[in-house]
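Question (not urgent): is this output format expected?
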Amino acid sequence: MSGDLVVALSGGIGGAKLALGLSWILRADDLLVVANVGDDFEHLGLHISPDADTLMYTLAGLDNTKLGWGRRDETWSFMETLTALGGEDWFRLGDRDLAIHVERTRRLRRGEPLSVITADFCRRLGVGPRVLPATDDPLRTKLRTDEGWLDFQDYFVRLQCRPVVRELAFEGADAASPHPELLAALRDEQLRAVIVCPSNPFISVEPILAVAGMREALSACAAPVIAVSPIIGGRAVKGPTAKMMTELGMKPSAAAVAQRYGDLLDGYVMDNADADEAALVAPRVTLAPTLMTTLAEREELARVVLGAADALASLNRAQNFA
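Got this back:
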């Protein structure tokens, strides 16, 4: 291997599973998890960062596996009272989760960067790896649907992904800058791999890639960039990925996700169920079980992905010396 540092680009639930697997096989200082901020929004006067919080809760062992989001040890007095008062209750905030949003909002209004606040929250909750917002600048995912342009959370939560998606836009991306720590990591001689976690490519990964200069920084890094497919057998493990692919004129397949990422990737990990699509993928393909229903499966997939990255790095070194 060329180094020890691993950078993982992640959305929420699917990406957090692989991030957790990576955290169990890497030293904390060797893992930098870059969180999508396109899902962030203001609700009830509070700044909500769903993907960063999902990563934080998962890595802290506090994730609510029953609901699939939020904290494990949650109570709901706030929401019950809000509903009784006729308040806007379509986005559910548990009592413990609410404290995170209140404190984040207070500190943002005081002028602290989102990355500093996120790092402090992770430290206080016992998270070892660094969870880093892709940018400290405002960036919001918008979707053009058959009901017009929608903010991401209106589409995803309030309308339960029902509208047909026609187009995506990332408001603020052109004016945003990648976090300096991320740029430094991508230039680091000890960088081992960049891993694109199995998150929705449209609404979890592409907001990260849309930040001005991000694709160029990834293309320039010396380490392999390797993605894990979020599609297994033509279906998304969770969320609207397959539905969105169909609506955007794409076949919902593992190969189509790789094609969407284009020449950004050096390698691609896809499920054994999709072996017949391997020939359609330009990057070097590794087949493996990718479902990750248990911690052991998350660790094993993390080992497979890092092994694939190391093999690519060795191949590149051999070609350079040939």
